[in-house]
Design goal:
This protein is α+β, with helices and mostly antiparallel strands. The protein has 6 helices and 7 strands; from the N terminus they run E-H-H-E-E-E-H-E-H-E-H-H-E. The chain has a 7-stranded mixed β-sheet with strand order 1-2-3-4-5-7-6, with helices on both faces. Strand 3 and strand 4 form a beta hairpin. The chain starts with 18 loop residues before the first strand and ends in an 8-residue tail after the last strand. The protein binds coenzyme A. The site of coenzyme A has 20 residues, from strand 4, helix 3, strand 5 and helix 4.
């Protein structure tokens, strides 16, 4: 189980909150924050069982009062392809750079795990472009299309979302 000391912590003087790996006691809040945006198609619904079984792929940030303020996860398709998923910032905390920091943390974890490419599907076009992602097309990711077909939902039909990709150079995991 990941601990606070082996995380891709992202610190900043301007916003001294810490992005860390998720723990067991984050699960209920992760599910709630993620599913808050699912009715609008911004995130995919996640069950508690799903989050528990993928907990090592989640990173979270909590406020000083313990409230879950943001989260992000990696979803592996193959050793050479991973998607940034479940990016969500609590409504009251949005617009303060937390989304950017969560993307940075997810990217860092993806590099540490040696993935050569990270992609994402999102409405937040300026945010991903600012983070060095390039516009791409979901047609490059048949694995993603197959997953949407498996849950009888087409991201293609949503139309307004964008696909972004970033090539990664791997970094060694801190010993
Ligand atoms: C997208 C999200 C994670 C950004 O979090 P955040 O903490 O507000 O992000 P930051 O403060 O780092 O950056 C804000 C930027 O995000 C972009 N953005 C956020 N929501 C957006 C949306 N719905 N459409 C387009 N751009 C959006 C804007 O460019 C904004 O930049 P601006 O402040 O210069 O206008 C947050 O808005 C959120 O949780 N949205 C609901 C869930 C979601 O859409 N998740 C993305 C799935 S990949």
């Amino acid at each position: 189980m990941a601990t606070d000391t082996d995380t891709a912590a992202v610190e900043s003087a301007a916003w001294p909150l810490r992005v860390r790996h998720a723990h067991d006691d984050d699960v209920a809040d992760i599910v709630a924050l993620n599913n808050m945006f699912a009715p609008d198609g911004l995130t995919l619904y996640r069950s508690k069982a799903f989050v528990v079984s993928h907990l090592q792929d989640y990173q979270v940030v909590r406020g000083a009062d313990g409230t879950l303020m943001g989260q992000v996860a990696l979803d592996e398709y193959s050793p050479s392809l991973v998607e940034l998923v479940s990016l969500a910032v609590a409504t009251e905390a949005q617009g303060n750079g937390l989304g950017q920091r969560l993307i940075t943390a997810a990217e860092k974890l993806a590099r540490e795990r040696g993935y050569p490419e990270l992609f994402a599907i999102s409405l937040a076009e300026p945010l991903f472009l600012r983070m060095g992602f390039q516009e791409s097309t979901i047609l490059r990711y048949p694995e993603k299309i197959a997953r949407y077909q498996a849950i009888s939902r087409s991201e293609l039909s949503i139309g307004r979302k964008f696909c972004f990709a970033k090539k990664l150079t791997s970094i060694p995991v801190a010993g």
